[in-house]
UniProtKB/TrEMBL annotation:
<dbReference type="InterPro" id="IPR001878">
    <property type="entry name" value="Znf_CCHC"/>
</dbReference>
<dbReference type="GO" id="GO:0005634">
    <property type="term" value="C:nucleus"/>
</dbReference>
<feature type="domain" description="CCHC-type">
    <location>
        <begin position="43"/>
        <end position="57"/>
    </location>
</feature>
<keyword id="KW-0479">Metal-binding</keyword>
<dbReference type="Pfam" id="PF13696">
    <property type="entry name" value="zf-CCHC_2"/>
</dbReference>
<protein>
    <recommendedName>
        <fullName>E3 ubiquitin-protein ligase RBBP6</fullName>
    </recommendedName>
</protein>
<dbReference type="InterPro" id="IPR036875">
    <property type="entry name" value="Znf_CCHC_sf"/>
</dbReference>
<dbReference type="GO" id="GO:0003676">
    <property type="term" value="F:nucleic acid binding"/>
</dbReference>
<dbReference type="GO" id="GO:0061630">
    <property type="term" value="F:ubiquitin protein ligase activity"/>
</dbReference>
<keyword id="KW-0862">Zinc</keyword>
<dbReference type="GO" id="GO:0006397">
    <property type="term" value="P:mRNA processing"/>
</dbReference>
<dbReference type="InterPro" id="IPR033489">
    <property type="entry name" value="RBBP6"/>
</dbReference>
<dbReference type="InterPro" id="IPR013083">
    <property type="entry name" value="Znf_RING/FYVE/PHD"/>
</dbReference>
<feature type="domain" description="RING-type">
    <location>
        <begin position="141"/>
        <end position="182"/>
    </location>
</feature>
<dbReference type="GO" id="GO:0008270">
    <property type="term" value="F:zinc ion binding"/>
</dbReference>
<dbReference type="Pfam" id="PF13923">
    <property type="entry name" value="zf-C3HC4_2"/>
</dbReference>
<keyword id="KW-0863">Zinc-finger</keyword>
Length: 224
């Protein structure tokens, strides 16, 4: 509430002082009432709307159990969300409009889970997990026998290892002996980065990542 500006008004000094005191009283009352709340604001203590947490009516009740706080869908495009009525659904979020919603991929999984199969239908056998293709020997570290990570070439015999594997192996051996050709006095500082194998490692990791999330993106695109 704002009163008229008496500073420039043609009134007596007493009226100006009286107006200033009245303005101060109004400002104090507004500060006690708390800030102006957004239309969809919900109290973080009780979950209800219409009041700030400082003015929550259940503040004095020590036995009151606050409802689980629902995350907001900030940063998630609206086209990726599906509105729901039940706030107890797993993964539910609160949109900027104050409505409940879940990610589209969760919505499809929830809908599939709710479908009841007729009792006369045979039970589906669980699908076998697809076996990953074996890693070529050329991409395996000769020490850990796993996919080369930060591949380096040792100068004595030209073989490739994981940088961490070969450095540890050389430092732990008494005479810095190569584990493949047994050449001694091989300094870890002479190791050379194998840029070609490092690129292959990155590409393989990238394809695994794409394959992992492929189904998720296909599902989302169907629902958009």
């Amino acid at each position: 509430m704002q009163l008229a500006n008496f500073a420039e008004a043609d009134v007596s000094e007493e009226d100006k002082i009286r107006a200033m005191m009245s303005q101060s009283s109004c400002d104090m009352m507004n500060s006690k009432l708390g800030p102006v709340l957004p239309e969809n604001y919900a109290c973080y203590r009780c979950g209800n709307t219409g009041h700030h947490i400082r003015n929550c009516p259940v503040s004095v009740d020590k036995n009151f159990e606050a409802p689980p706080r629902i995350k907001k869908s900030t940063g998630i495009p609206r086209s990726f969300m599906v509105e729901v009525d039940d706030p107890n659904i797993k993964g539910v979020m609160l949109t900027s409009c104050g409505r409940y919603a879940i990610p589209a991929i969760d919505a499809e999984a929830y809908a599939v889970g709710k479908k009841e199969k007729p009792p006369f239908l045979p039970q589906e056998k669980p699908k076998c997990e697809e076996k990953e293709e074996p890693i070529p020997d050329e991409l395996l570290c000769l020490i850990c026998r796993d996919l080369l990570s930060d591949a380096v070439v040792i100068p004595c015999c030209g073989n490739s290892y994981c940088d961490d594997c070969i450095r540890t192996n050389l430092l732990e051996s008494e005479n810095h002996v190569c584990p493949t050709c047994s050449q001694s006095d091989v300094s870890p500082d002479t190791l050379i980065a194998n840029k070609f194998l490092r690129q292959l490692f990155f590409v393989r990791w990238l394809w695994k990542l794409i394959d992992k999330f492929c189904f998720s993106w296909i599902t989302i695109s169907r629902l958009i």
